[in-house]
Amino acid sequence: MDKLNIALNEDKTAFAPRETIHGTVQWNLTTNPRHLELSLFWYTAGKGTRDVGIVQTLRFDEPGAYGSKDFSFTLPDSPYSFSGKLISLIWALELTNSPGSETIRREITLSPTGQEIVLGTHP
Amino acid sequence: MKARDNPFAVERVQAIRYRPLKTTFDEILARLHELNYRAAITGPEGSGKTTLLEDLGRAFRTKGIKPNLVFVNDTSRFDSPTCRRLLASLSRDQIALLDGADLIRRSDWSLLKRHTITHAYGLIITSHKRGLLPTLIECSTSPALLKNIVAALQPQSSLLTPEFLDSLYKRHQGNLRACLRELYDLYAQSDPL
Amino acid sequence: MVGMDSRGRVDGDKAPSVAGRLGLSLFFLFFFALGSLFELFIVREFGRAVGQRAWRKVPVIGVVLIGGAVYQFLAIFTPRPTLELSCGTISLGGAAELRWRVTGRTSRMDEFTVTLRGVEEAKYRKGTSTYTDRNTFYEMELYRTSDATEIASGQVGFVLPQDTMHSFEAENNRILWSLDVHGRIRHWPDVKESFKVTVTPTAA
Fold first, then answer.
1. How far is Cα B171 from Cα C180, in angstroms, rounded to an integer?
2. Is A73 strand, coil or helix?
């Protein structure tokens, strides 16, 4: 198994606003971390300097070198996942250990349509 | 093309670290040591000064020296209160990295220059002009460097011929940042979303 | 750009006020006068010594300055629009009604349009500069008229599309929606005003 893993129930990665994400984090490390942190956040990518918005963080203290734990997050109603010519906004879950440099990220979509909103260019 | 897929998106460009032309990063560090960690990185716009400053900051961190990085630009002014806050926060195990030293007021610069002699590990600045501190390196670019960077970002492209890149480089007078931003626009327009 | 208040009303006062425009006119005139004096007494003498090319640009700058002064002065008498939305914010897929009133000499306006526009705005800060880029991803003309009565006041209903992005503002990246008014006036500065609109996510 990879050292850190985020598994989403039914492998569901597309969520509607205010829906709850259910999943399990798993870890198998060589040393005992002080804690693990699972964050729900969005970030931007594209032509502008990156913005990041951390929505919620769950912390698991003294988790031991290996194990698993269920989690749930209730998503806000916005911002939607979207991609335009200049900006993409991407939602993700990220699990990290401390101390340590292991990290794993899982992208999700927050949108009323089930897919990221795509913006074009008006000529 | 979606912003996240654009090979010239900011995050991808910023992942390209400083590529010295006629020297190596280790030689730059060695020269910095000779200058007692008080030096200036000079060069025209878009020549990699900020990128090199950031890379030096990362290198210091691995050596246990804490970098204190301050950016001065058209939206982040370095006024007297900012100067005082920076000076108050500095300690002898910290190195001050100031991007845009030629934009700050002479009085604040004099104060910063004096204070960091005894209250900080060192002071490294970027400046468009020489003379504020001994020059560590004068950053410069070349058409080959542009091609090198473009190859790292977009290895296979029929759009980006060597002739096109030479013309792009010439049009922007060696400003690689401007070149890469134009390439972003080119790719943004090239495919429908 | 001017934002709408919670009742959805805003006046077209993003543009400089009358005092502001007078000030701008005087500002341009002052620098025109200064430039003219400079050209008259200094550059002509200096220009003879070093060549003609540089000082020939001064009259051009003078023309620009006097043009700017005239434009700002004329714009004082340009009609001013006021917009009122039926609600302070509109949700994606939601409907709204827009009313407008244009004060001033609207009879001189030969065309009036109101456009709903969605724009991506991305700021990039690197080195000592900040660069801002914009891309219009949505544009819908809500109203176009040449009728003087309709220009003076009117209303139009519209529905926002569902499958697009709501307003979003972060430090460097924004999605902005606006109602843009354009009134064309022959031989006179056009009316151009932009009114920020808050578009919220689809109503639950």
1. 35
2. strand
Per the CB < 8 Å rule, is B73 touching C131?
no
Q: Do C201 and A50 touch (CB under 8 A)?
A: no
Count of alpha carbons within 13 angstroms of residue C66, beta-carbon side: 9
Run of H or E residues at C44: helix C44-50
For residue range A17-42, what is the model confidence (pLDDT) as tens digits?
A: 999 999 999 999 998 999 999 999 99
Within a domain: residue A123? no
Q: How many residues does chain A have?
A: 123
Cα separation, B37 vs B60, in Å, equals 11
Q: Is the ipTM of this complex over 0.85?
A: yes
pLDDT digits (tens, 9 = 90+) for C60-97: 677 777 777 777 777 667 788 888 888 889 999 999 99
Terminal Cα-to-Cα distance of chain C (whole angstroms): 29
CB contacts, 8 Å: B73 with chain C: 125, 127-130
| Cβ <8 Å between A48 and C123 | yes
Q: Is the separation of the CB atoms in C44 and C55 below 8 Å?
A: yes
The 3-state DSSP class for residue C158 equals strand
From A102's Cα to the closest Cα of chain C, the distance in A is 28
Rounded to two decimals, what is the model's pTM?
0.83
- Mapping DSSP onto H, E and C, the string for C90-131 reads EECCCEEEEEEEEECCHHHEEEEEEEEEEEEEEEEEECCEEE
Domain B25-138 CATH superfamily: P-loop containing nucleotide triphosphate hydrolases (3.40.50.300)
Domain count, chain A: 1
* Domain range list for chain B: 3-16+141-190, 25-138
Question: Which residues contact residue C123 at a Cβ distance below 8 angstroms, ignoring those fewer than 6 apart?
Answer: A48, A49, C130, C131, C132, C133, C171, C172, C173
